[in-house]
Amino acid sequence: MDQNYIEYSQEANTDTDPSSCVNEIELGCTDSDYLEYDVSANTSDETLCLTLAITGCTDSNYLEYDETANVSDSSQCVNEILAGCMDNSYVDFNPLANQEDQDSCITLIVYGCTDSSYLEYSVTANTNDQTQCLLI
Question: Tell me: the pLDDT tens digits for 86-108?
Fold first, then answer.
């Protein structure tokens, strides 16, 4: 007749078998959708279920980063962030970049003849355009 046990019954008026109280009540959040889920709880107390579990990529170094996720699932972290110049009009263009870093775009491409043995040689050119190298 101990109300701290699951087997407790208000209708019982005599405790004839003290060993009948086997499972002590363990209050807790019994909803596995919450961070506070308690696997050892055998009696639900919904007031203890506070934070809904949101599974996702919790690593901010990945494009798939989910700032709302509070349960890490590394399988959702696929593309690591590679910041760089994504503008192909710059010498600094990085075709592997997946996040723009405008500060890394420094030198605009200037096409011209970069072979000094040609009359059309351009001191300002930084990218060779062989079609502009005509006369030797």
Answer: 999 999 999 999 999 999 999 99
Token pair of 117 as six digits: 């043995």
Residue 63 vs residues 47, 55, 57, 76, 92: alpha-carbon distances, Å: 36, 16, 9, 10, 22
Number of folded domains in the chain? 1
Return the DSSP state at 59. Answer: -
Residue 10: per-residue pLDDT: 63
User: Taken in order 58, 61, 62, 68, is the CA torsion positive or negative?
Assistant: positive
In a domain, 62, yes or no: no
Angstrom distances, CA of residue 16 to CA of 4, 13, 21, 50, 83:
17, 9, 11, 41, 74
For residue 9, tell me if it sits in a domain: yes
Structural domain of residue 46, as residue ranges?
A: 1-53
User: In the chain, which stretches have pLDDT less than 70?
Assistant: 1-22, 136
